[in-house]
Every structure is written in C-alpha cells, then in structure tokens.
Design brief:
Blueprint: H1 2-7, E1 15-19, H2 22-36, E2 39-43, H3 49-71, H4 75-78
Parallel strand pairs: 1-2
C-alpha cells in the first residue's frame, strides 16, 4: 500500500482493506499505518453484502468529496 500511495494518493485512489482477521494480525502499528495512508477498512463476513456495498460506496463518496474540496480555490490562493 505504501508503494501505491507513493504514486497515487487519496482521493485519486481510495483504498479499502478487506480482511477477515486482519485487525488481529497487523497490530496497532499496522492499523495506524493504514489510517495514515488514508485507507478504509472493511471486515469480511461481518456485514451482509448490501451493507458492504453501502460501506464501499461511502468510501467512494468520501474520496469524491475530498477531491472536490481540493479542487476549490482557497482564500490563500487569491491573496
């Protein structure tokens, strides 16, 4: 994921970690790294397929909203 983020950042490429037991195996530092790299997390078999779809769509919407905010000129740009 670090290699991907070096080339393509959020919000251009939203990333969702999809794992059944990943939270237990990566530990606190790994989880913090995933958060730092602006990735989401989805636990396999915790939700039904419709809920998973909603969560994935929510992550895509979060990326789109972030992209729109970064495209807007700020007061700093006009000063």
């Amino acid at each position: 994921m670090r290699k991907i983020r070096r080339h393509v950042g959020f919000p251009e490429l939203p990333i969702i970690m999809y794992s059944q037991s990943g939270l237990l195996t990566i530990g606190d530092l790994g989880f913090q790294e995933i958060e730092r790299l602006d990735a989401g997390w989805l636990l396999k078999d915790r939700y039904d397929s419709r809920t998973e779809e909603v969560l994935v769509c929510g992550e895509l919407m979060r990326a789109r909203m972030a992209a729109r905010r970064s495209d807007r000129p700020s007061a700093r740009d006009h000063g």
